Amino acid sequence: MDGTLSMPLPKGFLDFLEENGLDPSIYAARDSVPRYVRIKPGDESQIPELEMEMKCKLEKVVWLPGFFAIPAHIQIASSKAYQEGKIYGIDAASGAAVMSLDISHGDHVLDLCAAPGAKLCFLSDLLGNSGSLTGVDIAKHRLAACRTMLKKYSLGDRCRLFVADGTTFSLLPLRVHPDSRLEILRNTGEEKIDLYEEWTSRRSWKERKKAAKARDNLHMLSVKTEPELIFYGPQSGVIGVSKSELFQSECGSETSKLGYDKVLVDAECTHDGSFRHIEKFEHWGWATLQRRVLDAKRTDSLTLLQLKLLSNGFKLLKTGGSLVYSTCSLTVAQNEDVVDQFLAANPAAELQEICAAKNWPCRSGRIPKTLRFDPLVSQTSGLFVAKFTKLSIG
Ligand SMILES: C[S@@+](CC[C@H](N)C(=O)[O-])C[C@H]1O[C@@H](n2cnc3c(N)ncnc32)[C@H](O)[C@@H]1O
């Protein structure tokens, strides 16, 4: 054990850090890292009331608009503002990953690894009443948690959520004006039956039977063929669309024009940069950490997964659009190495400078233009961020 750390780390984890050239002292800095909250635009006037309720000062994060730091021991879950959906917890480094995308009014945005949904909420928050947001995650129960969050924070109006494998997901954004679709729905008589109507969590007996049959088939084939739509908001563009239209996959050349304007690939990783995640293993047992994080075979398959997610996210990006790749691992294997392999295989991909980062408390990754946040330098959780654009070639 390392005596300088307030949380004793097992030898296996320290070896993992050493093998990956990571400094264990970044975990010692965790006690001084605050908790971060974002206040939804328009609710800033509630700050004094919030401070009284939480018995602490909300320190403005000067480099990240709308973000506030509070002492790490303060729990926001019991506060009225949290329960009323006016503030949500999101680490400042996660906020920076989202800000790197430079969301503009009207953007169609894809979040390829969306659950549990903090970045999804922030994306929706930035889009406001414009564009669309598509969230994808392979874990249905985790994506269901995203749905709960979106509803709680009233951020789901323009969002649709698909349970799907992000390495093969291929649905393009619906670039139609939601209102024109609603008009079709109102005026279409006999075909209405095939068109999506307002989303409801209650499903008819017929739909439940159909879903059960699909599950049985899936079980027999043990493959998932089609993404499962588990939520869509009234302005997501889904209402009034037919199933065949919604599930029409991208087809090569179309994507350059009709793909997403912005894509976030916040990939599955070993989470070793997130000390709050590592801390959980104190309760779950360090053997679980060994199995889930340190196992070399798992890490190898993870880097392959990360590369596939990044490559597929890029495929779905329109020409001139921006993609952000992030992980909460600090290992080079899951970050710079993945970026190098991706760039070598994708001549249309170009690394971009993250302009806003000039004033951010982070350091450069091993590849220029990439960023690394960590508790020591940034007073945040650990995060790697790289931004790409898609060039028009050939
Ligand atoms: C680091 S978490 C994402 C955190 C999320 N962006 C947020 O801000 O709350 C990674 C997510 O990737 C999902 N995932 C793992 N493999 C996937 C795959 N093949 N396709 C899509 N999602 C995947 C996991 O279920 C997990 O929810």
UniProtKB/TrEMBL annotation:
GO biological process entries: RNA methylation
Task: List UniProt keywords, sorted A-Z.
Answer: Methyltransferase, RNA-binding, S-adenosyl-L-methionine, Transferase
* Domain (SAM-dependent MTase RsmB/NOP-type) ranges: 22-391
Query: Per its UniProt record, what PROSITE patterns does this chain match?
Result: SAM_MT_RSMB_NOP
One GO MF term attached to the UniProt entry: RNA methyltransferase activity
SUPFAM superfamilies on file? S-adenosyl-L-methionine-dependent methyltransferases
Q: What InterPro entries does the annotation carry?
A: MeTrfase_RsmB-F_NOP2_cat, MeTrfase_RsmB-F_NOP2_dom, RCMT, RCMT_subfamily_9, SAM-dependent_MTases_sf
Checking Pfam families in the record gives:
Methyltr_RsmB-F
Residue ranges the record marks as coiled coil? none
Question: Gene3D superfamilies recorded for this chain?
Answer: Vaccinia Virus protein VP39 (3.40.50.150)
What residues bind S-adenosyl-L-methionine, as annotated?
Answer: 137, 165, 266
Active-site residues, as the UniProt record annotates them:
328 (nucleophile)
Top-rank taxon: Eukaryota
UniProt lists the family membership as follows:
Belongs to the class I-like SAM-binding methyltransferase superfamily. RsmB/NOP family.
What name goes with this protein?
A: SAM-dependent MTase RsmB/NOP-type domain-containing protein
